[in-house]
Write a structure and sequence with these properties.
alpha+beta; 5-stranded antiparallel β-sheet; 3-stranded antiparallel β-sheet; 8 strands
């Protein structure tokens, strides 16, 4: 019971240090202390401090590509062999093309939506979504983090406020890469604050 109380006090301290930022919407790419987010390997007393996805702007290239691909059937009619096909065959080919475009867009969206980065009061979690049949979850304890580097290069990333956070650890996975996340400076600061709090807990003899 004492251990549980101490953990709750630790989370309360993190709330004071980190604060509340971002949105709890389904498509959010940045939120601290989310109200409705949990993950498969989360412990009962583990609190999600930070939930991240890549900045929505990274979806722009495939969205533009999808729009262009959707307009292609209107161009097909002017070129053989499509133009020489009977109407029924043209319909089948066009339908197949739209199904292909839909699959392409869905795969890109799912890749963005399910590739997530999570920071809890105990560890850092990287969920790497490959496809609907395979995903990889990598974790490292906060106390195993050795170094945090922020990278935000180019006017585009600076203007839209996103970049990458690289976390060096002593865990099995030596480096975690939070790619193209919003507010990378704030993310790095939060991680460093958590490292400091972890070290303070060790000095004070408190264990989560």
């Amino acid at each position: 019971m004492v251990e549980h109380v101490k953990e709750r006090l630790s989370v309360k301290k993190l709330r004071e240090v980190v604060g509340r930022h971002g949105s709890d919407s389904l498509l959010t790419s940045y939120v601290s202390f989310p109200n409705k987010i949990c993950f498969e390997t989360q412990d009962d007393d583990e609190e999600v401090i930070l939930f991240l996805r890549q900045h929505p702007i990274v979806n722009l290239p495939w969205i533009i590509t999808t729009i262009l691909m959707l307009t292609l059937p209107s161009v097909f009619v002017f070129f053989p062999p499509y133009a020489n096909l009977p109407a029924n065959f043209q319909f089948v080919v066009t339908l197949g093309w739209y199904m292909f475009v839909f699959g392409f867009a869905l795969a890109k969206f799912m890749g963005w939506f399910f590739n997530i980065y999570i920071l809890t009061d105990e560890r850092v979690v990287d969920v790497d979504f490959q496809n609907i049949f395979f995903r990889k979850i990598s974790t490292a304890k906060i106390e195993e983090i050795q170094d945090v580097n922020i990278q935000s290069s180019g006017s585009f990333e600076t203007f839209f406020g996103y970049g990458s956070v690289f976390i060096q650890t002593a865990a099995e996975v030596s480096q975690f890469e939070f790619m193209y996340v919003p507010n990378p400076d704030r993310v790095g600061k939060i991680i460093n604050q958590m490292i400091d709090l972890e070290e303070q807990e060790k000095i004070e003899g408190r264990v989560k």
